[in-house]
Amino acid sequence: MTVATELGSATNTPARVAQDTVFVLDFGSQYSQLIARRVREAKVYCELVPGSIPAAEIAARAPRGLIFSGGPASVYEPGAPHPDPDVYNLDLPILGICYGMQLLAGDLGGAVEPAQRREYGHASLTVDDEAGIFDRLPHELSVWMSHGDVITRPPPGFRPIAHSLNSPCAAIAGPRGRFGIQFHPEVAHTPLGRDVLRNFLLNVCGCAGTWEPASFIESAVADVRRRVGDARVLCALSGGVDSAVAATLVHRAVGDQLACVFVDNGLLRRGEGDRVVEIMSRQRHIRLVHVDAAEQFLDALQGVTDPEEKRRRIGRTFIRVFEEQARALGQVPFLAQGTLYPDVIESTSYDTQHAQKIKTHHNVGGLPENLRFELVEPLRYLFKDEAREVGIALGLPEDLVWRQPFPGPGLAIRIVGDVTRERLETLRAADWVVIDEIKRSGLYRKVWQSFAILTPISSVGVMGDYRTYANVVAVRIVESDDGMTADWAKVPYDVLGTISRRIVNEVPGVNRVVYDISSKPPSTIEWE
């Protein structure tokens, strides 16, 4: 049964401001989003767009410059992705990175050929001409290479400005502020890569480098208001940071046209439902419909063990609940969600049409094909830390904004195997212990995520004078900047020991705790 209650409403609206923008054209690199992140870190707003974006659309948006990403293809292969040829006729600076450099060379009349030896890993780059992108940088740079093709002849009007052992044209410069670099400045393995990007953005493109989340708020509010008009919006609150920030942002844009639906799907962490109602309805005065749909989700997940199928069923159930509430609320054509950039990238949306799909996110790839809403996703070009900054700027409480990331499908994908009420309660209790001890130790805001996983494994143990055969719980604690890469956290042994002891003593049916020490990649942060 679905039980819904409704509370509160209010209005608030600001104005839009202009901002420098740079487009990152994505040609299929798994690290295209890192380029976008580095640009943001230079305080320049950017968007990741398909490599095939029409030149007319770029011209209409008037960016200050373009960055071509890397990619897995070779530019001379049939079917390799290329930009709209008219992009080169735009009077815009361009920085090509790896495959993007080879596109720049090949499309403009240079020669790109297979290298005699693939160049992968750390390399020493010799700067022959500081030009614009190497301004005030050392003449010898440590860089990260990953390519199997080389430029053997720069295009007309271009000249080599750096070389490495295997790449005589490891960087090129041409007219109208156009540069190509064979190395990857976006990765941490290129220590001065951010300086190279900053030189391009500030010195070549002429960006001011003053972008802040506050300026994003103003432009995003204006975009939502322009798109929605006087229509009504239904916002999906999940209980996490992303949807709370998205709801607050949309509410600022359209006020009472927004109705938030918070679904208690029975898959949340302890105490989350009550906190959402307290903050969003009673404190923020946003119209909120609180739906108790735990039984529907448990029914949908009965007997399902495949993680992708779990995501799909949870996504479909979410949408069914929203549609029921939309009908009760009247005509509501828009659905707002807290989708973030990592969700978009890992689900391979139209933004990354040449990238490999990693997994489906319930609020991106798990939606049914006959979705009756038009999606509003104001955060889809933000990383998690940026969304948090926006949340603080919007006045949300710090304990909500700094809540650790929680997957849209909730505890269902932290239970490996069948999802039952009993197993949910076991995991919820174990997870509470992990969070409690991480907070107690002062590590909560120093790590990216800390949580428990209920495995499908049972093990032999001894409790008191009795033999037990009970559940094994895994603990996962990782450090990360943005969730795209992560390393397991070197948590002090005494903290891990306390977590293990408390879980075994306080959570019925668990007699063993293990610690996951794998990094992303090759693993993902979540187990499913």
Going by CATH, the architecture of the largest domain would be 3-Layer(aba) Sandwich
| Strand residue content | 15-25%
Number of helical segments?
Answer: 14
Report the span from N to C terminus: 28 Å
Structural class: alpha/beta
CATH topology of the largest domain, what is it called? Rossmann fold
Helix content, binned percent: 25-40%
Major sheet details: 9 strands, mixed
Low-pLDDT stretches are 1-18, 348-362
The Cα radius of gyration reads: 25 Å
Strand order of the largest sheet: 3-2-4-5-10-9-8-6-7
Which of globular, elongated, flat, extended, rod-shaped describes the shape? globular
Task: Report on this structure.
This protein is about 30% helix and about 25% strand. The chain is α/β, with parallel strands linked by helices. The protein has three domains: about 180 residues, Class I glutamine amidotransferase (GATase) domain (Rossmann fold), CATH 3.40.50.880; about 190 residues, Rossmann fold (3-Layer(aba) Sandwich); about 100 residues, GMP Synthetase, Chain A, domain 3 (2-Layer Sandwich), CATH 3.30.300. The strands form three sheets. The protein has a nine-stranded mixed sheet with strand order 3-2-4-5-10-9-8-6-7, with helices on both faces. A hairpin with a 2-residue loop joins strand 16 and strand 17. The chain is globular, with a radius of gyration of 25 Å. The N terminus is likely disordered.
Structure summarized in a few sentences:
The chain has 14 helices and 19 strands. It has 528 residues and is α/β, with parallel strands linked by helices.
Helix/strand layout:
Blueprint: E1 3-7, E2 21-26, H1 32-41, E3 45-50, H2 55-61, E4 65-68, E5 94-97, H3 99-107, E6 111-127, E7 140-153, E8 159-163, E9 171-174, E10 178-181, H4 193-204, H5 213-228, E11 233-237, H6 241-254, E12 258-264, H7 272-283, E13 288-292, H8 294-301, H9 307-329, E14 334-336, H10 341-347, E15 374-376, H11 384-393, H12 398-401, H13 421-440, E16 449-463, E17 466-479, E18 487-488, H14 493-506, E19 510-515
Parallel strand pairs: 2-3, 2-4, 4-5, 5-10, 11-12, 11-14, 12-13, 14-15, 17-19
Antiparallel strand pairs: 1-13, 6-7, 6-8, 8-9, 9-10, 16-17, 17-18
Helix pairs in contact: 5-6, 5-11, 6-11, 8-9, 13-14
